[in-house]
Amino acid sequence: MTEQAVLPEAGRRPGRALNVALWIAQVLLAGVFAMVGYLKLTIPVEQLAKVVPDMPVFMVRFIGISELLGAAGVLLPWLTRIRPALTSLAAGALAVVMVLAVGFHISRGEVTAIGAPILLGALAAFVAWGRSRES
Where are the domains of the chain? Predict the structure, then answer.
């Protein structure tokens, strides 16, 4: 007699392995975006102008604030259980931002710089998908 594979029902909580993978992805995303956002907010203007010469400083600072908020949004709602659906929304927003970052780098001819945004976007899309199943 053969056993049949049991398919998960729609809306059912994911298994332990998926939950652990989602937590790892969330912590990685939060860490990376918090670090990069912090740097964009604290690097002196003179150094910032050398790193991104054709982007206004206020835009880089705005992106830094957005990245810090994204880092908090991808982790805190699920961790505190206060409006956990916001985690999937924050992760989805980060995925969209990473798609835009890929386009930005391609438009500047920086094709070698698209690896990180693609990886982060994929992680963010994974978190958005996985956490939307539970909320």
Answer: 16-132
